[in-house]
Amino acid sequence: MVRSKNQKMKKGDALFFQNPVFVFADFRRIYLAKLVSNIGERFFLIAVSWWVLHSPVENSNSLLGFIMGAATVARIVFGPVMGVYADRYNKKQCMLVAAIIPMFIVAGLILVFPWVEQHLLSLWVFHFCIASFLPLMMAASTSSLPLVVHKDDIAKAVAMDGGILFIGQAVGSTAAGAFIMLAGVIGAFYVNAAAYGIAILCLLRIKSNLHVEQAKPETQHSMWKDIKEGFHYFAQNTLVLRLVAIFCVANFFMSPIMIAIPILTIEVFNGTAFDMSLLELSLALGAVFMSGILGSWQREFSLSRILPFTMLLNSGVLLAISQSREFYFICIALFLMGSSISVTNAVVMAKMQKIIPDAIKGRIFSLGMMGALLVAPVALALTGILSDSLGIKNVIFINGVAFIIVGMAAYFLFKNEINFTESRDGNNL
Length: 429
Known about the structure:
This protein has 17 helices and no strands. Residues about 10-15 and about 420-429 have low confidence and may be disordered. Helices cover about 80% and strands about 0% of the residues. Helix 11 (about 240-255) packs parallel to helix 16. The protein folds into two domains: about 20-210, Growth Hormone, Chain: A, CATH 1.20.1250; about 225-425, MFS general substrate transporter like domains (Growth Hormone, Chain: A, Up-down Bundle), CATH 1.20.1250. The chain is globular and about 55 Å long. By secondary structure, the protein is mainly α. About 45% of the residues are buried.
């Protein structure tokens, strides 16, 4: 039962037909394009991790951290610019560009594969170039939602769109490990390129007009003036500043898990690519599971309770991982960590959604996310360097202790704040 974006869902529809993926054809095309490309990107990341860590180069852990940090650097550098392009130009064309160019970059990597094998540092350049277009895809696709679904169904569409990253990570991580064992690293790169090709075909089938008329030039603000207004808002609203600060600090100690998982797989378990994919899958499934629960949760959340709880849970998980050599125990621990990450993100983002005015919300979220991304490459680089000298287990232990401090800070930062959701039964968590 496909409807246009001007036709909202009906209460009498079966549950199956109430999902915007099945109701709105163009939303489904965007959803599938993002999901397939996200799975392909997981293949790329796991292949690069496996390739670098099994290479004969010295300090491979540090090299992997450096290469993984390329994506964060690219998003920081190009994020604001790509956001402007997504607002000014047809969003369908922007999404096509964000899929076509990375596909050709991956194809180029396949063509020069033997040379790259001798110069692994060049992977940083390939990763940086591919990741440069991720902000364009995200900005164009997210801002397209009101243009392809009915206004009353935006919330459902946003929820479905937000789950793409976790679903893609779960599917990609599971399939990539097994596929690399069969077809090798270069086979995973072929899958990545093919995924972009499928995404392009989905995007080409979009029929809605995804171009939004912009304000007249004389009424437009300069980009720099808009950015300054965002910083001024932070100075006036200390609660938002504290939320962003705790989010950035938590991201600093959480982001190293990106390279800790492949290092644990090889150095601790002497495992295979499939083992690494199971660890990745455990983290992703925890996030997916908790996202589903939060979608129907009716009680209020108290910042001074839930944020310290999630930080202390992260601490306990990391400390347990640092002391364990049991593979499946660590899988369970990562599942709990994924759940904790999902709760933390939901709490912080929901609070900010409620208190930030709509007129400035985009800039505040962009600046806040940029702050979180700025700390990630530093954390990744430090993890790679310290794991070479101290060992990955000790690095994880240090992060676990740090989360205890972060949890205590979260309690004192938000102990006087009111709850942020309306409760139907008047209960708090």
